[in-house]
Design a protein that fits this description.
alpha+beta; 2 helices
Length: 254
């Protein structure tokens, strides 16, 4: 009985198949990466929204006054004994003040900001898994001066007042040095993080979503912002001309 032998692929045919697969992968990989980043950014925004709801609950229970986070300026939630750090602890993350109003510290993490070689302070980079957002200093500090905690109820445009946003430091408190506004048309924001600044190597961690450029001081990306009315929006990489200072201070004074 005659049997028909299966036809084997030739070496040329195998190479052609491999080349076609390589081309397809090259076409699909950028799309897959964009889809993954879109999913990570969605989680980041959802976490910010949850934080906003927790802070709102805190304000309702505390006469519309935020926690005094003037001392906390680190990335730590717990001390060496595993106990939650105090709001008077310099190394504590500002979220310790609101932890009772939130499901868990992990909500302060941002999936787009996990592969971090180092932090702005010489601490374990993995701390940023639960400490990825920068708090606006003016949430509790009155820009007009004084030592008393300001009332959030007196901020008239709450949908235009920043509570926190993507950043590489736990608290932004030095105006144009670490905030998104600048000191006038043509000047730069985030001057601590720009070329020649003392924290220049950390710049790319700020506008960290949908990154499109590998240049040292240009990501082509965006950052996410939590506003006092709890909505979350994106801000495309900017030098600050389109960001008014009152988004941080809640006043009309520049």
């Amino acid at each position: 009985m005659n049997r028909t032998s299966p036809t084997a692929f030739t070496l040329i045919e195998l190479l052609v198949v491999i080349a076609v697969l390589a081309v397809l992968m090259a076409i699909l990989m950028p799309s897959l990466q964009r889809a993954k980043e879109a999913a990570r950014e969605t989680v980041c925004k959802s976490n910010l929204r949850s934080i906003g709801l927790g802070i709102t609950a805190y304000l309702q229970d505390n006469d519309s006054k935020a926690a005094n986070s003037g001392t906390t300026n680190g990335f730590f939630w717990y001390d060496s004994s595993g106990d939650l750090r105090s709001t008077h602890d310099r190394d504590a993350y500002w979220g310790v003040a609101y932890v009772r109003y939130l499901p868990k510290p992990a909500v302060f993490g941002c999936p787009s900001y996990r592969s971090v070689a180092e932090l702005i302070y010489p601490d374990d980079p993995k701390l940023v898994y639960e400490a990825a957002y920068g708090l606006n200093y003016y949430l509790f500090h009155d820009p007009k001066g004084g030592n008393s905690i300001r009332s959030a109820a007196l901020i008239s445009h709450q949908g235009q007042f920043i509570v926190a946003h993507d950043h590489v430091e736990p608290k932004v408190e030095q105006d144009s040095a670490d905030m998104f506004f600048n000191d006038g048309p043509g000047t730069l924001n985030l001057t601590h993080y720009r070329q020649g600044g003392q924290r220049a190597k950390f710049y790319r961690g700020i506008f960290r979503h949908a990154v499109r450029s590998n240049e040292e001081f240009q990501t082509g990306g965006r950052a996410n912002i939590l506003w006092l009315d709890t909505h979350v929006s994106s801000l495309h990489e900017t030098t600050g001309d389109d960001v008014p200072k009152q988004w941080y201070t809640g006043t009309t004074e520049r």
